[in-house]
Amino acid sequence: MSRSITVLMDLPADNDSHRFTVDALAHAVAAVGAPVQVTIVRTDVIGDLGDGVVIGPGSPYRDPAAAEQAIQTARARGIPLVGT
Amino acid sequence: MLVEHARTLLGIHAASHAEYDHADADNPRVEVVSLLACALTESQIEISITPHTLLAEIHAGETRRVERTHCSYGLSPDFSHIASQAGMRVSAIDDTGEVRAVERADHPFYLGTLYQPQRTSSPKRPHPLWVAFARAVTA
Questions:
Q1: How large is the ipTM?
Q2: Please, which of A18, A78, B122, B129 could form a disulfide with B117 given CB 3.0 to 4.6 Å?
Q3: What distance in Å separates the CA atoms of residue A13 and residue A56, rounded to the nearest whole number?
């Protein structure tokens, strides 16, 4: 079954921290060898959090309250969560 | 993550991040995350990993390692104690004793770092933290 990771990140795609984050997730997903869809989402348009959440670098966020709500939801529901 | 922890679990409702919520007479705040005295942009730091934590498990018991960082904010020294309260625990500190990673004992995979493990990942050597995260997502 395919799983999904939502990366909350407002940085533009050409930013170093953005690229490092996307690349590192791709390396990890390849290492695990399971189907995982990684989606980059801006903090002001957060929807379903999926099966794992990354709080990406690059604060201040467009919508810090929404980012905090996502953290709370992931924490309370036991959804794997990484913040860097 | 630290601000959410402080607000929701510790009841510090005015907890804030230095980049947000500027204080004034009508809006007092408690700066849990503050500007570092020395911004760690494009830097390397050596961290000490707390034994018997998720982070220690991820790094197979390794106690010291070098990580790259690119941030200007960290847990305020006045609030370092909150990283060891309400289910949160310190996973790693740096050589100045500042908290560099936190996790939750009551959560299957909750890890926050004040460094960027993504900066040392490569296709041939994916960073163990991200691999462990991917495994947790697919478990």
A1: 0.97
A2: B129
A3: 12
**Residue A54 structural domain:** 7-83
Judge: A28–B117 Cβ closer than 8 Å, yes or no: no
Tell me how many domains chain A contains.
Answer: 1
Residue A2 counted as domain residue: no
Please choose, from the candidates A60, A16, A19, the residue with its C-alpha nearest in 3D space to the C-alpha of residue A40.
A19
- Chain B residues closer than 8 Å to A59 by CB: 17, 19, 73
Residue ranges in chain A modelled with pLDDT below 70:
none
For the stretch B32-50, pLDDT in tens is: 888 776 556 778 999 999 9
CB-nearest to B118 from A21, A59, A72 is A21
What six digits make up the tokens of B67?
């990580």
Residues in Cβ contact with B85 at an 8 Å cutoff, skipping those fewer than 6 apart: B9, B10
Residue A1 lies in a domain: no
Chain A hits for B127, Cβ within 8 Å: 24, 27-28
In a domain, residue A33? The reply is: yes
